[in-house]
Amino acid sequence: MGYDSFGLPAEQYAIQTGQHPAITTEENLKRYRYQLDQLGFSFDWDREVRTSDPNYYKWTQWIFKQIYNAWYNVTANKAQSIDDLMVIFENEGNETVKAHTSCTTIFSASDWKGFSEAEKQKILMQYRLTYLADSWVNWCPALGTVLANDEIKDGVSERGGHPVEQKLMRQWSMRITAYAERLIQDLDEVDWSESIKDQQKNWIGKSIGASVVFQTENGDAIEVFTTRPDTIFGVSFMVLAPEHPLVNKITTEKYQENVAQYQKQTGLRTERDRQADIKTISGAFTGAYAIHPFTGKKLEIWIADYVLASYGTGAVMAVPCGDQRDHDFAGHFGIEIINIFKGIEISEKAYAEKDAVIANSDFLSDLPVKEAIRAAIVAIEEKGIGKGQTNYRLRDAVFSRQRYWGEPFPVYYKNEIPYLVSDEALPVTLPEIDKYLPTSDGEPPLARAKREDWNAFDGDRMEYNTMPGWAGSSWYFLRYMDPHNEKAFVSKEKADYWNQVDLYIGGSEHATGHLLYSRFWTKFLFDMGFISFTEPFKKMINQGMILGRSSFVYRYILDPIFQSNELSENDNELIIKFIKENQVYLSKDLHETSKKNSLDSIRKFIEEKKSLFNKTNGHIAFSDSNLKYVNALYADIHLIDNDKLDIEGFRNWLPDYKNAEFILSDDGTYTCGNEVEKMSKSKYNVQTPDELVEKFGADTLRCYEMFLGPLEQAKPWDTKGINGVHNFLRKFWRLFHDANNNFVVSDGLADKASLKTLHKTIKKIQDDLERYSFNTAVSNFMIATNELTEQKCNNREVLSQLLILLSPYAPHITEELWALLGNEKSITQTVFPNFDPAYLVEAEFAYPVSFNGKMRFTLPLPTDMDKEAVEKAVLENEQTLKYLDGNSPKKVIVVQGKIVNIVL
RNA sequence: GCGGGUGUGGUGAAAUUGGUAGACAUGCUAGACUUAGGAUCUAGUGCUUCACGGCGUGUGGGUUCGAGUCCCUCCACCCGCACCA
Q1: How far from the centroid of its chain's Cα atoms is residue A107's Cα?
Q2: Other CB atoms closer than 10 Å to residue A174's CB: what's the count?
Q3: Separation of CA A882 and C1' B52 in angstroms?
Q4: All domains in chain A, ordered by first residue
Q5: What is chain A's mean pLDDT, rounded?
Q6: In this structure, are residues A641 and A669 in contact, taking their beta carbons and an 8 Å threshold?
Q7: Residues 805-834 of A with CB under 7 A from strand B
Q8: How far apart are CA A419 and CA A42, in angstroms?
Q9: What are the tens digits of pLDDT across the range A235-270?
Q10: Which residues is A79 bridged to in the sheet?
């Protein structure tokens, strides 16, 4: 059991209240612990971890150091120590090194030896798996921090929904892109839902194709990536992203104004706007031309915002016949559309399927697409204008947060060069600061700490950023295995013993965040030899969310009709005031009827209001009115029982509703509407387990939650059925007690029927458990209880076994009954009952007899009766004769112990 | 648009390998008991029909002796991705 206890909510709360987040976090954890204990969960608290505990984040910092001191060797396809890389650099420079790196310069061994320390560090930084670099990040001003891509939904921060902008900042990043291919490949090894795997694949976004260089007329090179090199003869123009660095260089004088205008126009629009508006086709011609590498033809170079700077090279070769966007663009600007597909009409729309045959394409003609792709790559490579290449959409993950409540980096700076804090000095603990806010010159909160506030100060200054939420959560499962180890984050022996997490139950919202990062760190730790497995979570079940059920009242206002149409401003004010003061809430059935304004109860209300108004405002009397619907308002679900509103309670709930008037249904009650949605304070539909535990007990709550339906399915939290589960537990208790609640069980041998019930139940519970079907398990307990009640069974042996089966579901009641039975040790220490099929053997089976597949009646026959005898017995049966009605059956199918089907 | 998922009574759902559709619970109806309760017990409850019977697992088709379950078509809803070259 552990808590991922660093993060934004605690810090936001700290800013608001001025309390140290460690204190509020501690309070919250106490509350969680209370709730968990109250529910009777049997966690091993000796293994408790907290990501915000220095004893834990010491090792998060240590892992960071390992990642810093590693590079990705593409040849070996794994991470290796940076020391190995330095040896290679010493001996042969970097020319032979195949690595995931942002380093573009090539140097020899002697170059390397000649470099200054700062130069060497700068180069190594470009190889490290976590590196400091100026990168474009998602800056969220409202939260005062950068966010990772997975922390942004629909262009705004996932937490709080604040706007996000692009900003160039010096940040730590994790080179997760080095693992892109393995993160896709290894998904085959894990037993996860397709939807999560797809989400990850999608996020990583692998595309296979080729990178091709097109020369421009004046000698600049435009590199493009394409997944369809086979369509290269269909290229009729080039498009660059408006932000592409080459744009300003190649634009001819004549078009400069136009291009600048277009760049400005797209610059004004946010990324989100540009994505939302995919219908408008826009672009600008640069006046420059590229040369087709095979045909030598001149290709116009355009800029357009449908090409994204952030993907691939920020440039495309446009093939209008094969890509709809290119087709639209060509059509809009009157650019030539070349058809390179045999027998396919492309004048209306592009043909993007990969089942065509290429035509009109020199050496690629007559080849099917797949072969043409291969042939094209060969030709491109031979010509030296490009190469086959695989691209990933995945970006390196930004690892810095400009926040206080997170892991400090084990990093200090000397002359602004980062250095690692030594292992002996770890953990670098969070210093106390005066305010949890950025400094006046925009530095993160940690910049407020003075030299002496740090426990491990070194160099000129410490790193001011802290680690993101996913740092601590990427490896906690490893710490569970060895939570108190002071020498290692986990010992190799323990990691080998426990191995992977057998079952991970969690929500699918972590698909592209936590679940991807944990996989990344696990692979890294594997590469470095610290653990022996490459995937953290062997099997995963995505539990459905428990949703809330919100209740609504329907608000109406009067819509009066006046005879006089000469109303003064003063009159209007009076009327508006009157309408405001006389709102009314309609019961759901009235709200839903179309003829509501002619209903008696509503007429009566209107008449009353009319005379009230007219009495005081005679000169502007209104002649009639309708009720006009305004909106539905959330009503606190605690004021509602079975959709019926507690009207007095509602009036006392919020000052606005003090004088609320209601028009009730015929039965004198107010019925609320309802909707199933996420639980949220603003919807007044939150139910905490505490209230239910108090009302029904933890056992009832646990069983009911399981009884609701399949684990994976989202479902509304509706307590209507909870009584049924509660009654079941009472009924179960009564098996052990007489009418006066005295504990009575009988010794000796149990009835055959009771033993059958018991063993049937053992079998079912076992099966249900194996397929995580907890809802059917609870019903099977109910069935067993009903049967034993019917049998008046209070046999010690049978009831003891049943208790054990039920104990994980309802630990409290079973433990108590277990003690009453005279057991001294806890029920959790006993052995699971053994299933014996012998008790289920029946002498007779009631065969369902169907005619043409329709079941008509059942016929009890001995179980051991063979097929022929069953057929004979059925055909001779009186009821069969009735259904045969003198006809002879065409065919009789007998499945022994299952069914008889007679075909007429 | 692409990918994934889900469609069964008034409601939550069950049916594990193609073999009695709706178990279990809730809700509702009627009744019993009673220190009047969120208690306990009995009977009924998919739709339709007075009944015999007929119909019934989102739609339409197919395979099969037999389909909620397998195959194809379409529809609805939910989730994720989306100008990804």
Answers
A1: 45
A2: 26
A3: 13
A4: 80-123 (no CATH), 206-392 (3.90.740.10), 546-683 (no CATH), 690-839 (1.10.730.10), 842-903 (3.10.20.590)
A5: 89
A6: no
A7: none
A8: 44
A9: 999 999 988 989 999 999 999 999 999 988 887 766
A10: A72
